[in-house]
Amino acid sequence: MTRKSVRAIFPGSFDPITNGHLDVIERGTKLFDELVVAVGRSPIKNPLFTPEERIEMITELTADMPGVSVESFDGLTVEYAAQTKADVILRGLRSLTDVQYEFKLAMTNRAVTGIETIFIMTSEQYGFTSSTLIREVASLGGNISNLVPKNVHDRLRQRLNKKASSK
Length: 167
Ligand code: ADP
Prior knowledge:
The chain is 43% helix and 19% strand. Strands 3-2-1-4-5 form a 5-stranded parallel sheet, sandwiched between helices. The mean pLDDT is 94. The protein has a single domain (7-127), classed as HUPs (Rossmann fold). The chain is built from 6 helices and 5 strands, in the order E-H-E-H-E-H-E-H-E-H-H. The longest helix is centred in the middle third of the chain and has 18 residues, at 96-113. Bound molecules: adenosine-5'-diphosphate.
């Protein structure tokens, strides 16, 4: 029997991408034939990087991963999923708080277009890793080198140095 090829999208803000996201992407490549990391362009609270910068960092990190591509999208995730003929939405889960939020989101998305959401549980070491916390800790000078890839760490340092020198 031939198996249908499965195309998943992994939507998020990725401001910036963290080791937690990267772990979900790496594990996702084993489940799906195609995995599109989809960077949302909708405005977020206190953004640090532009969508283009976020895409650039993710592209550098996923260049050698088979079946992985990086795109950006405006507006509703389900509309983007339908336009790009995605079979499933991939999301990551860290905590019960994530479950509560993601459960509602997945139910709504399925009610609107019928698309299924598949979840990958975080690896223990990244259970507390979030882009928001990384932006906050980095801006206060904390060491986040274990939580983000090197290219992101370098860009964070550059960005925050620039911000500090323009004050
Ligand atoms: P959004 O603003 O859409 O939640 P994020 O970039 O914060 O976008 O996250 C994208 C997805 O990655 C979400 O499903 C989120 O739960 C998941 N995620 C974020 N950090 C981790 C992590 N450390 N481990 C597993 N999943 C994660």
